[in-house]
Amino acid sequence: MLALAAVVPLLAFGAVSMYSLRSGTTQTVVAGNQNVARRAAEQIEQYVSTTVKILRAVAADLQHTGLEPWQQDRILKNYVLQFPEFTELTLFDPAGRPLVSSRIGTSRVSVPDPGSLDLGGALMSRLTVDDDLLPTAVIGVPVAGTGTPGGWLVGEVNLEELWRMVDRIRVGSQGYALLVASEGQLLAHGDPAAKSRVARGDNLAAHPLVAAARSAAPGAALSQEYDTARGRVLAVAAPVVGLAWTVIVEQPLVEAFAVANRLQVQLFVSIGLALLITITAGFVAGRSFIQPIFALMRGTTALAEGRMDQRVDVRSRDEFGRLGHAFNDMADRLVALQDDLRKQERQAMFGRIAVGLVHDLSHPIQNVGNSCKLIVRMWEDREYRETFTRTVTRELAEVKRVLDDLRNLARPLPLEKIPLDANAALGELVESMQTTVDRAGVALEANLVFGPLYVEADRFALNRVLRNLIINAAQATNPGGHITITTERMHERAVIRVADTGCGIPAERLGAIFDTFVTTKRRGLGLGLAISKKIVEQMDGTIGVASEVGRGSTFTVTFPTTKARPSQAAAG
User: If exposure means fewest CB atoms within 10 Å of the residue's CB, which of 22, 116, 313, 509 is most exposed?
Assistant: First the structure.
């Protein structure tokens, strides 16, 4: 308490100092960034007004001169060659019909709508992105003396320099600028990672500063903090006079207040050192009392984390000492119990493996043995030799399948994920398994979502998982039942369902159906679904099951969809 009484004034002084430092830094940073935004707005307004002045100069060369159409055409083409920012200049009559144009062929421009942006008599359309992904606008100025008073000179202007101007506006190393129209259209963005937003035509009408700029008084200082994809930023805004545009400069708070943050850290360190020095004396005095408690806490935490060799060293002869000895005795007993449990688990595991191997291998080995006994007696029978070959080959393949499952369980399969069409892979698999399912007397139906369903997966591994699910469904379904395979797109994921009308799985066994050596069949090791789950998870997918006894089961496999497409080589 004495230490606390000494530290409270220091903490109060530190809090006031940090508040003053933060407030002053905020005002300085906001003022500096607003100056940058205002200068940028002036440059943009001058750039656009210069473009309009050039267009007015062209109109002045055409009006009240009585030029022939071929002379007007020559003037327009000369201006397009002299000023590369103009991609087309076209002269229209009052009815909006083109008279002459610098463009060879049909003109691409038209007279801007009366509701376009008014630039002192000139009309400017919304900015768009042309085929070269560059900003373009159409500006029209009135022209008199073109034969009928009230015509228009319309120019298509490449505003690439506008983007360059915005790109050059930098505050620090991470601060960027963006240009927004009055209706919220994003015109330019200085962040290279956000260029695509301009091409998409993002609307920022709900942007905090855009909404504030519409209702703010002229010349008002606008600043705000908000969250973006790059983190929390400090943003200021400045209007572009005469264009109803707004320049917004965003700078991450981490960079904007870097100096203030360093000073705050230094202040914190100073306060912390003072606090440490002040309370050290009291802490040392109580250390001897709480040391045994700390030792017991460390020992308890170690046991909870599974470090069973941890013991506590409490040498006192008081209650803490007796508690420490009791803790060590408990830890020794836990180690002995854990060793016994591991032995029992190993014995149970070996028992399950042995029973599974006997179930899976006894029948093939018995068939091979019987066939070997008969082949000695019936070697001369050619027909039986062929039967013997088929039998031995079939049963050895079954033995190899069991051994492969055991090997794949211990060592996951190496997968080569490539973009592939899950619908196409399913279609081929259903076709190849039609005979197997027909032999079981079960109908197999596929309902695939329209169009390709692209995922990144290993074709062999995916076929193995789905084949295993279909075989399990066929084995669980009585003759006359149905197996339905469906696919769909759901929240950027590909969903594959294998549903059957079989016997179903009891609810108490659903939670362990994907565990190793767990099976609902009368024979087998129970490795199929465990290996399938590992394969699906290796391909960033998920697998689950829903079942009702007597009505059937539905296995659901999902994978993330991909925008990548199969290459020609992979498709072949």
Answer: 313
**Which positions ≥6 away from 503 have C-beta within 8 Å?**
476, 477, 478, 549, 550, 552
Cα–Cα distance measured from residue 167 to residue 553, given in angstroms and rounded to the nearest whole number? 58
- What CA–CA distance (Å, rounded) separates 227 from 239? 22
- Contact between 90 and 101 under an 8 Å Cβ cutoff? The reply is yes
DSSP string, 210-251: HHHHHHSPTT--EEEEEEETTEEEEEEEEEETTTTEEEEEEE
Supply the range of the domain harboring residue 484: 418-571
With CA atoms as reference, report the closest residue to 415 among 510, 246, 540, 277: 540
Confidence check: pLDDT of 28 > 50 = yes
Residue 541 has φ and ψ, to the nearest 5°, of -110, 180
Q: Where are the alpha helices (DSSP H) in 90-240?
A: 160-168, 195-200, 208-215
Residue 78: both structure tokens together: 């000369």
Q: Are residues 18 and 147 in the same domain?
A: yes
Q: Model-level pTM?
A: 0.44
Q: Give the C-alpha separation, 423 to 466, whole Å.
A: 12
Beta bridge mates, 344: none
Q: What is the pLDDT of residues 352-408, one digit of tens each?
A: 666 555 555 666 777 777 778 777 778 777 777 788 887 888 778 767 766 666 666
**Length in residues, the chain:** 572
Residues 521 and 440 in one domain: yes
Contact between 147 and 192 under an 8 Å Cβ cutoff? The reply is no
Chain-centroid distance of CA 177 in Å reads: 26
The domain tally of the chain equals 3
